[in-house]
Write a structure and sequence with these properties.
alpha+beta; Alpha-Beta Plaits
């Protein structure tokens, strides 16, 4: 079953390769979506894929890459929209 999750990650998550690490994990798990920096210092991650794979990437987001300091992760369920590939942007 394909699911979609929107994740907002707070803490020291910009400038620590969070988006690139997330992209690598998502591609490894065959999950589509995107990761982008928000102006308030958070990172927004959109994930679409099989539920166990998406759950694995969400769990990665709770830790992030080695230099990240994740304070909070907010996960929202959304309707899948048929995303393909994974992109990162500012």
């Amino acid at each position: 079953m394909i699911v979609r999750r929107r994740i907002l990650v707070s803490g020291e998550v910009q400038g620590v390769f969070f988006r690139e690490g997330c992209k690598k994990k998502a591609e490894q798990m065959r999950v589509s979506g995107s990761a982008r920096n928000l102006s308030d210092g958070r990172v927004e991650v959109i994930l679409e894929g099989e539920e166990p794979a998406v759950k694995s990437v969400v769990e990665w987001c709770r830790e992030g890459p080695p230099h990240a300091g994740v304070d909070a992760v907010e996960v929202t369920e959304e309707e899948p929209s048929g995303l393909s590939g994974f992109s990162t942007s500012g």
